[in-house]
From TrEMBL:
Family affiliation: Belongs to the carbohydrate kinase PfkB family.
Annotated PROSITE patterns: PFKB_KINASES_1 (PS00583), PFKB_KINASES_2 (PS00584)
Xref: PANTHER family: 1-PHOSPHOFRUCTOKINASE (PTHR46566:SF5), 1-PHOSPHOFRUCTOKINASE-RELATED (PTHR46566)
Tagged with keyword ATP-binding: yes
Database matches in Pfam families: PfkB
Protein name: Phosphofructokinase
Alphabetical UniProt keywords: ATP-binding, Kinase, Nucleotide-binding, Transferase
NCBIfam families documented for this protein: 1-PFK, pfkB
SUPFAM superfamilies: Ribokinase-like
Enzymatic reactions: beta-D-fructose 1-phosphate + ATP = beta-D-fructose 1,6-bisphosphate + ADP + H(+)
Domain of life, per lineage: Bacteria
Record GO cellular component, one term: cytosol
Record flagged with keyword Nucleotide-binding: yes
């Protein structure tokens, strides 16, 4: 069994509400609502656990609402090595309008964390690495109080102990982390353009941009492009994955599912084409579920067969 740690420094309570014909400056009736333990790192850990891996999460949780996450960890078999900080973990509200096919996001500020808290995460990750880890997933934005170089330091810590690293963040933390040489990064096309300081339009420009990043020492760059699919680029090859059309239940965690799929594919030693099929299928599986969940494995296998692979 592959042992993986997910680092979640800015976890979130994900509240999803269904509001048909949602309107601004009006009274809206909620048709359905659910609350999930979330944030990118938590989601990646949840998907990896579903795929059969032994996963532990470290990072920060607010003491005031940690119980939601504790229940989730117990239900999914995820190890809990998170530090509890004063305050409440932030809430992200997603308003889903099934009639107009629109999604509105309201993201609240989160708890702040200083150098001492980061040192605590470093110690927790160090203990997990000493016990033996194959992969470390570093996912999400940074909370207030942590410097952009945070992920770069954690990457170096993991690499020194022989673990491979997948990184999913954006902005200054992503830029600062590239010099540490993560094995996998998964920006979307807008995030990759922002990283390089220019807008990217379409597959060809995304591939060219990804090649620039790979030349700097990153092993695999997977660029997600929404309904257009994704491009995957390594030093030796590049390709595009085109998903089939499916009915979307929720977009929550679809990008995080792709990260989990990329890690899962790497643990299985898949080639680039099969990696693209699997990661895309896991992402599609998440789109068909409400909350950070995946369908049965046979459904993911069916989706893999429907993913188109082409030259890029």
């Amino acid at each position: 069994m592959t042992r993986i740690a997910a680092v979640s420094l800015n976890s979130a309570v994900d509240q999803t509400v269904r509001v048909p014909r949602f309107a601004v400056d009006a009274v809206n009736r909620v048709e359905a609502s659910r609350v999930d333990a979330g944030g990118k790192g938590i989601n990646v850990a949840s998907f990896l656990a579903h795929l059969g891996h032994e996963v532990t999460v470290t990072g920060f949780l607010g003491r005031e609402n940690a119980a939601l996450f504790e229940r989730h960890f117990a239900q999914t078999g995820i190890g809990d090595a998170c530090l509890r900080l004063d305050g409440a973990t932030r809430t992200n509200v997603k308003i889903v309008d099934p009639v107009l096919d629109q999604v509105t996001d309201l993201n609240f500020p989160g708890i702040s964390a200083g150098p001492e808290a980061l040192e605590g995460v470093g110690r927790a990750l160090g203990a997990l690495l000493e016990a033996g880890l194959d992969w470390v997933a570093l996912c999400g934005s940074l909370p207030e109080g942590l410097p952009p170089e945070t992920y770069a330091g954690l990457i170096r810590q993991a690499r020194e102990k022989g673990a491979r690293v997948a990184l999913d963040t954006s902005g200054a933390p992503l830029a600062a982390a590239l010099s540490a040489g993560p094995d996998i990064i998964k920006p979307n096309i807008a995030e990759l353009g922002a990283l390089l300081g220019r807008p990217l339009a379409g597959r060809d420009e995304a591939v060219a941009a990804a090649r620039e990043i790979v030349a700097g020492g990153v092993g695999l760059v997977a660029v997600s492009m929404g309904a257009e699919g994704a491009v995957l680029v390594t030093r030796d090859a590049s390709l595009c994955a085109v998903p089939p059309g499916i009915e979307v239940a929720s977009t929550v965690g679809a990008g995080d599912a792709m990260v989990a799929g990329l890690i899962h594919a790497a643990t299985r030693g898949l080639d680039l084409a099969e990696t693209a099929r699997l990661a895309t299928a896991v992402s599609l599986g998440a789109l068909g579920e409400i909350g950070p969940h995946l369908p049965p494995i046979d459904r993911i296998e069916d989706l893999m067969a429907a993913v188109g692979i082409g030259a890029a």
